[in-house]
What does this fold into?
Amino acid sequence: MSFDTSKIKLHGESVDVHHEDFLKGDLPANLAKLADMLATAKLDLERSEVLYRSWKATSTNMIADKNPKWAAWRITAALEGEDMFLKYKEGICVQQHAVNVLQGVFEAVKGRLHQ
It folds into this structure.
């Protein structure tokens, strides 16, 4: 992978973002496409965060119900030791990466457009 290409996920599909391609040709159309992709990435990020928060609340309650005398730190440690914790956190990181990449390319195209 080179620095002018980033691999991201949008709606669960792997997408190669070729930065230089967006800086050529019809810049307003490229900006519109990037805006759409960025909105999708932000939606995916929000969905990932909502799924994580729902899982966390449900799992925290289950652990606390089974272990009513446990301190909060111990419940948190048990929760963060779950495989699903890592799965959800990784998903959030992947989606945040997509937002960051698309935001950077969007700003670069916008800057080129306004030169």
User: Anything to note?
Assistant: The chain is about 75% helix and 10% strand.
